Amino acid sequence: MSNRILEVEDLSVEFSTYGGDVKAVRGVSFGVTRGETLAIVGESGCGKSVTVQAIMGIIPMPPGRITGGSAKLDGNELLGLSAKEANQFRGIQIGMIFQDPMTSLNPTMRIGDQIAETLVVHRHKTYAEASRQAIDLLEKTHIPEAAKRVKQYPFEFSGGMLQRAMIAQSLACNPSILIADEPTTALDVTIQAQILELMCELQRTENMSIILITHDLAVVARMANEVAVMYAGQIVESGSVEDIFYESSHPYTLGLKSAMPSNTGDRDKKLTPIIGSPPDLFPPPQGCGYFARCPYAMRMCEDRQPVNFSVQGSEDHYARCWLQHEAAPAVAEVSQNSQDQSHAG
Amino acid sequence: MLAYTLKRLLAGAITVWFIATATFIAMHQVPGDPLMNDKAVSAEIRKNLEQKYGLDKSATEQYFIFMGNMLRGDFGISFTQQNRRVNDIIRDHFPVSATLGLLAIFFAATGGVLWGALTAIYRNRMPDIIIMFLVILGISVPSFVFAALGQLLLVNINSMLGQSLIPVAGWGTFAHMLMPSLVLGLGTMAFLTRLMRSSMLEVVNEDYIKTARAKGLSPVRIFFRHQLRNAILPVITVLGPQIAAITTGGFVVELVFAIPGLGRYFVQAVQQLDYTVIMGTTVFYGAFLVFMVILVDIIYGFVDPRVRLE
Questions:
Q1: Which chain B residue has its CA at the smallest distance from A53's CA?
Q2: What is the DSSP letter of B263?
Q3: pLDDT at A187
């Protein structure tokens, strides 16, 4: 068995609109290690959610279209499957939770029934058996009085409780991967911490991998083993969590870091936002997507797509930035001096 | 739940009282009176008649007499149909209108949900385009046109078969009810189809449908268990007023198909200023409408758990 449970190669997704095709995801590659957490970071609209929804096969098609690449779960291709084939892994091997728990559960169906449904469909249990198991699952996610709670409807739950119920539902068939698409964005801060703690705990007890999508670097630092920073439909930097935080090699990663509040530094210091907004993706920019906002932009960045450089010869730390080229000028803040371009593309 | 129902019924009673009062005032504002249509009568006979029907009393007095009788469940005697009690008119003819109306609403609701769901599935493709075109016809063509076309269709079918399989007009058997209730429900069916279609398209984009797909449920299961029930809620909301509108608004269809419903008496009474029949039918229809709306609200509470009947 390979160490990587999920391997995504060169995934591209487009959306047809009246104005033309939007290239939302442009050749994304990453791997998920067994039992570990991969965080995908980036601002709104950079293609994080589309990437994982494409893997799950839940992009609305049309207008969506997967134009290339592959996603292999334990060696089995996930892309381009029929609904019937895809349902052999959805909810069984990969569970998924969403950003807004308030709207992610069916409002007219009891919580217990929604959890039980997964078991009835995939494990061929009777509703009575599945309902009993739903209570266990809710208890596993620390929902008090689970036996009473399963009979309630989503509107009777708080936001944090609903996200716990969503997690319980996604765990029903013991998936090996949990995809969490901004699971704490819609929750307030104390509840956020509880949900993240719960996810860490379940990762240990259930021995599953997590793909965590977030725009919150604090969450990344806390949860992730590996990080992929996404911008304008591409992964611009990827590596271990230490690489990303201490050896940041892409100006966008630096920008995200300096936009993050710190509780150790000078409290009166103003945060530095990244000026501007992400580029329009139809047509996608000719050169680097970050060119217009990058403080270190060079002339070539405008019209030449940067390749993926290995940072300092590392085997798992890559940055898609011309500053990593040997001929690039030195920039104090950026971790540079890459030697080869072993992962050109 | 019980307290809620009682509260709604009480509010409904106030509504009915308001309808009765407003109708009474409006009716007395119309020039003329129920005796005007009669052949020229001498002043003395007229005075006797007025005395008999209580028309010599002041409007206020008449109002209180009427209200008192109404509370006792007595709507009085018709002016134009000698010695026929309004209660009897309602009792004899309302069941006919109600049967026709309920069958029509059944056609309208099942058809509306079915066609609406179908158009949503085939959005912007041929079945959707065809059905939505028919829907526009159904909404814009008046019911008497459909009534006549329906009769023509029946005539052709019957002559083709050489026997009267489905009667073209009249009332009595279930076969009599089919065509008129279909025609009567057509407009509502078209309206509900549009409502159901937009509601389905809205629900498709809800997050919980995405969740259901990520759970690995089959498209059929998602459609029936997650989409349909949520999409049907707005349809149920409008069903109450629609039931009342169909049951009371079947006058034209009743006329074309020669059905002895209440609608005809309602219209005739207004034309002839038959005070007691106007009041009786209006109050009765008003009460029926109010009751249906309450009934639908209570049913809604069962379908949508978020609605609390308190």
A1: B214
A2: H
A3: 83
